[in-house]
Design brief:
The strands form 3 sheets. This protein has a 7-stranded mixed beta sheet with strand order 1-7-6-5-4-2-3, sandwiched between helices. Strands 10-11-13-12 form a 4-stranded antiparallel beta sheet. Strands 8-9 form a two-stranded antiparallel sheet. About 40% of the residues are buried. Strand 5, helix 9 and strand 6 form a beta-alpha-beta unit. The longest helix is centred in the last third of the chain and has 37 residues. By secondary structure, it is α/β, with parallel strands linked by helices.
Length: about 475
């Protein structure tokens, strides 16, 4: 979560300002003298109408989520899904005995994903819902570490420090995991035109203390898939040479809900024996509002039983594996609704339409003389591009800033270590972002280019105020 500082004494004591008289429900002048304080509880209550209006007015300054091309998170669902979520928003997901049908829908979603991801025996796969992929990754990392600890009781913790191998393009949650659970993060840097983990680099970093390799199905930096089968084959060779049996976790936050439908021939999931666990974000290409994620293990051997807590809570024995406890059941219900509503054919149609939009946008942007494409939008419906080598009047940060003036939120950011020289723009296409909206975006981009070309040079804004990178 984001950390916030408390208000200063002057903030807490600040006097209110006059408010719009019409904020009063019945009497236009009743209680209109001052607005409530911003950083301390008001002395008394407000009418619900007035409280709503204050909050509503401030939120008008937020960006329009449908025009947000930075986020992977779902920004549109059908009204029926919204009704179901409203009906379930007061249900606590952890109260399995009190809400048994909600718990049943969670189990069905796990079973559906186990089948979708080709678990050897879907009935034997284990999994759970989470608040998102970040929690799911933490749980998967904990399972990897605990399995390694069980195999190395004679060396850990006294003589050995566990490590986890990943590309420098991983989502920050993996860095958090390594920091919080005292695991060495061995990151493969980007090199040249390789922007994610490859098999030789992963294998080269392995040793007897490696708890696993994280492979990403859909890098947030550019939308590309990492080569799962090649990575697993390289680890097979490592085992033949050294005896180290190193499992793979697939971070499929986005791609695990794209590849099964659009790339069925791609072998990336539990069909690879070395894949021990997979996570995805239901609130990304699972097409559900935030926040719901899923973590699955191929069988009970992949998830050590000692990590599963069995709690006698509110009348029943409840096995649980989670970092959170109380959370709403609404998103889980919405996930089941979406699975039921679309089925395989519906998901295929939705994801194909989204990829078609991404590929069309990438092709049209690539045709502009000002830009160079890094990816084409043909894996995740995501693509990255940068300014062409001959462009000196503006940079990607100028483009991001100018598009924001027209309502478009598109991130500009610098790549990590070894490719810090490369700054890019990234476009994430999602369900609800149509070809019509894509046409509007391209029209605005093309309209800005003459002004950008006339600049004497890039704005050279400080890095601290450059558009942030959003996973």
């Amino acid at each position: 979560m984001t950390l916030h500082k408390g208000a200063s004494p002057s903030d807490r004591k600040q006097s209110g300002h006059p408010v719009n008289p019409f904020y009063g429900e019945a009497d236009p002048i009743a209680g209109m003298e001052t607005s409530p304080p911003r950083h301390a509880l008001p002395d008394g209550p407000l009418s619900p109408h007035t409280a709503y209006q204050f909050v509503h007015d401030e939120l008008m300054l937020d960006g329009n989520s449908r025009l947000n091309l930075a986020t992977f998170v779902t920004t549109w669902m059908e009204p029926q899904a919204g009704v179901l979520m409203a009906e379930c928003r007061d249900k606590n997901m952890i109260d399995k005995d009190e809400y048994p049908r909600t718990a049943e829908l969670e189990k069905r979603c796990v079973a559906m994903l186990a089948d979708l991801w080709h678990a050897p025996d879907p009935a034997a796969a284990v999994g759970c819902s989470t608040t998102g992929s970040s929690e799911a990754c933490m749980l998967a990392g904990m399972a990897l570490k605990r399995r390694w600890m069980q195999k190395n009781k004679d060396r850990y913790p006294g003589k050995a420090r566990p490590n986890l191998i990943m590309g420098a393009n991983v989502q920050v949650c993996w860095e958090k995991f390594c920091n919080f659970w005292e695991v060495e993060a061995r990151m493969v840097p980007m090199e040249g035109d390789r922007f994610h983990l490859d098999a030789p680099s992963a294998a080269a970093l392995c040793d007897e203390n490696t708890i696993g390799v994280v492979a990403i199905l859909g890098s947030t930096f550019d939308g590309s898939y990492e080569p799962m089968a090649e990575i697993c084959a390289a680890l097979d060779e490592v085992q033949r040479q050294h005896g180290w049996d190193i499992p793979v976790h697939v971070d499929g936050a986005s791609g695990a809900m794209i590849a099964p439908f659009l790339d069925p021939e791609l072998v990336w999931d539990f069909r690879l024996p070395r894949v021990a666990s997979i996570n995805t974000s239901g609130h990304k290409y699972g097409l559900v509002y935030p926040g719901v994620g899923w973590a699955l293990w191929r069988d009970t051997d992949a998830l050590p039983e000692e990590l599963v807590f069995r709690v006698n809570y509110l009348g029943g024995d409840m096995p649980t594996f989670a970092l959170n406890f109380s959370r709403p059941g609404a998103q889980v219900v919405a996930q089941y609704y979406t699975f039921l509503r679309l089925g395989r054919a519906g998901f295929r149609a939705v994801q194909q339409a989204t990829r078609d939009v991404a590929r069309s946008m990438a092709e049209r942007i690539g045709a502009l003389d000002d830009f160079t494409l890094l990816t084409q939008g043909d894996q995740l419906p995501v693509f990255a591009f940068t300014t062409a080598g001959h462009v000196t009047a503006f940079d990607v940060f100028d483009v991001s800033r100018r598009l924001k003036e027209r309502g478009w939120l598109i991130p500009a950011y610098t790549f990590p270590e070894n490719r810090e020289d490369l700054s890019v723009l990234r476009v994430v296409c999602r369900n609800g972002f149509s070809l019509d909206l894509a046409d509007l975006f391209l029209a605005d981009l093309e309209a800005l280019l003459p002004e950008l070309r006339d600049q004497p040079g890039p704005m050279q804004r400080p890095e601290s105020v450059a558009t942030a990178f959003h996973h």
